Give the backbone structure.
Amino acid sequence: MKYILVIFLLVLSVCNLQPAKAASDADSLALLVKTLNSNDNPQVRAILMKGMLSGLAGRRNVEPPKGWKELSKKLTLSEHAEEQALFQQLSQIFGDAEATERALATVDDPNADVEARRTSLRSLLAQQNDQVSMKLEILLDDPAIRLDAIRGYASIENASAPKILLGRYTKFDESMRRAAIETLATRKGYAIELLNAIESGKIAREDIPAHVARSLDVLLGKRFVKVFGEVEDLSADRAKLLAKYKAMCSPEAMEKADASRGRAVFKRTCASCHLMYGQGGKIGPDLTGSNRANLDYILLNSVDPSYDVPEGYKMVLIQTVDGRLINGVVAEEDARRIVLKTVEQPQVVIAKEDIEARKVSSKSMMPDGQLEQMKPQEMLDLIKYLRTTAQVEIEK
């Protein structure tokens, strides 16, 4: 019980949730390191280091706290894999060149544990390591880490990224193609090449999800609209559209609809943001307990998702000082960082010192026009699934 209380207070301190009279950051980190040095329980040490990582997420080149060198000697000899992994991540944040080299070696090693490679890659990208950015093209050849490599191009700008991703686009599976499109919509230089590919027909217009179209509109403005057309805002025609879809959802049509097919439509169009029966994303509200039996409720929230957006689900657009555009819903925020939930990743940590511009949109993260992009039968099947009271088998 004593350990739990100490850990709780120390983690609060490092995560910037401490009371006003708490010690400075340097003192808080030194206290954590002192506790780590005096503790021989690997589980307790792992909890403490997780707290440190949580509090330091998004930060780079932090001055090593007092006692870190002594602790390094002890933890380097640890035989506990989790403890070693956490120690290596912290060492990178504290500017340890040897820890960075070990992380690079882990990423390069095809025989290393897949999760260890992914963790090392994410850690190096968070530290803006240029060496790992140059390795991303080679990592695209490795199925185990390919998705992380695609998304890695968003974290660090790489002039070769558009040519590399667009050159491999047709060879990627559906999830990889979507990740490539989302990555190319994070930076203006990337976005220009993506737009050129759309204009030439190399990338189909239908391959551009609505949330990506919004990002491209922000980055490229009129240039994007000239090629792609206006990003639809359907709220002005709300009543007309509601009447249209309600007429389509007649009792006879709903009788012929298939919830199993609808679940497949949900997985493709909604599951990246919404939970349903415990499966899906956590950006938007969990739909399992919502008013899904009410057809009017479903249609209103599908036709005009921005009609009444709760404060916690408003979209935030952040432009970083190095030109990256990120949009998502705020999961956490303190004096030093903001954590966004995005369609692409469940957590993106951004240090406030890296933010150039920030805007809260009146729009929901859920794009307008979702139903308009579906075939009539797909829409009916989705509505049928959304009105189920128990999970159904997904269409194979």
Remarks:
- Residues 42-56 form the longest helix (15 residues).
